Amino acid sequence: MKLDRRAFINSSAATVATLAAPRVFAAGHGKPHVVVVGGGAGGATAARYIAKDSKGEIAVTLIEPTRMYYTCFFSNLYLGGFKEIDDLGHSYGSLAAGGVNVVHDWAIGVDREAKTVALASGGSMSYDKLILSPGIDFVEGAVAGWDLSAQNAMPHAYKGGSQTELLKAQVMAMPEGGTFAMVAPPNPYRCPPGPYERVSMVAHYLKANNPTAKIIVADPKDKFSKQALFQEGWADSYSGMIDWIGSEFGGANVSVDPAAMTVTIDGEETKVDVCNVIPAMKAGHIAELAQVTDGNWAPVNAADMSSKADADVYVLGDAAQQGDMPKSGFSANSQAKVCANAVRGALTGSKVFPAKFSNTCWSLIDTDNGVKVGATYEATDEKIAKVDGFISSTGESADLRRATYEESEGWYAGITADMFG
Ligand code: FAD
Description:
29% of the residues lie in helices and 27% in strands. By secondary structure, it is of the alpha/beta class. It folds into two domains: 23-138 and 282-351, FAD/NAD(P)-binding domain (3-Layer(bba) Sandwich), CATH 3.50.50.60; 148-279, FAD/NAD(P)-binding domain (3-Layer(bba) Sandwich). The strands form eight sheets. The chain has a six-stranded mixed beta sheet with strand order 6-3-2-10-22-21, covered by helices on one side. Helix 6 runs parallel beside helix 7 (227-237). The radius of gyration is 22 Å and the shape is globular. Residues 1-21 have low confidence and may be disordered. It binds flavin-adenine dinucleotide (FAD).
């Protein structure tokens, strides 16, 4: 049965909340009201900046189910033993103190005609402008043999928190000389260097604790972000430990069996001890429910991050299809500031500055061996377009690599303060 948008919201609200008659919360109290869905890198930044810069002229509500946000950024360093899980957690207390109405709930539907967001706890919330930054969900059936019900046996660890802790526990429990397998994702996906930094950090842990263990990577791509830098680092630090199987060697032809703990690559079955399956990705489900996606991602206008489907809805971060920026926390933060400025301008008439974006992705290969890739971007009519970029070189000095790692530590402290206050 095909539901129209209004019917879907009514039916989904009814299934979760027969307990309470639907209520509409108009939290604006006469002021314009911005609702932000998703309190991660993009959503927290947007909520914080609109509340801070509008000085009370705009009411801002952030809808986020979790009380503590665990960053994916630096989660690989936790796997490698360089960070504790508590180093990655950020609460919403400062946002609330800064005037953001933080509601811990799931958004379960969007009625773009009525301009309301339905909440899992019942009722709905009206908005003047809606900002969606729900991150990613996985494409069903992307890896044969794997679905979300297998995520405890074969974790993705591509959303922060408990999945990352589970993967680390599994790596620590590997038998001597055991095998860690990764099924890497196809483009486009969250954090292009993320899988390969993860391989480096797992190798770092295993080299110290289980040096005869092996790592196999089945990759549907034939090249990947910072490849020369990673492969140089793997040869120098983890010689003989990592077997990367790209698409030309059958890396795209993969199936897994979570019950048997086997991975089959191009017809060859291997029994493994840990299997990190990172499936193909798409925009977080609420973007689909809001009907602002093309089936996978949500196309946006580069100048302000507004949806191409609706001028009152904005999509930030990983969920957005915006052009040249990689899907990263830095990108989401950068896009959120452009969006916050534009939303404030639209609602209060304040000055709107031309959109400028930047991003840097750091990766740690081994102790004090940090590398980076980054760029600046501008808005064109067509997309967010790259202006210029930089990347670390192979063969750099140990001092430069250490300085790059130290720079990444400063970045983490600075950007999480910029997001969460
Ligand atoms: P998220 O930060 O994922 O936030 C989405 C939020 O929305 C979540 O809190 C979720 O609970 C909430 N949400 C989802 N659906 C709903 C709903 N229906 N209702 C209410 N709330 C909802 N980036 C970097 O810049 N640098 C790095 O070094 C880096 N390293 C990474 C390493 C790894 C291993 C991984 C996996 C990622 C890494 N990233 C890095 C990428 C970065 O984590 C993401 O690009 C970034 O978090 C995207 O921000 P976002 O706001 O789009 O989504």
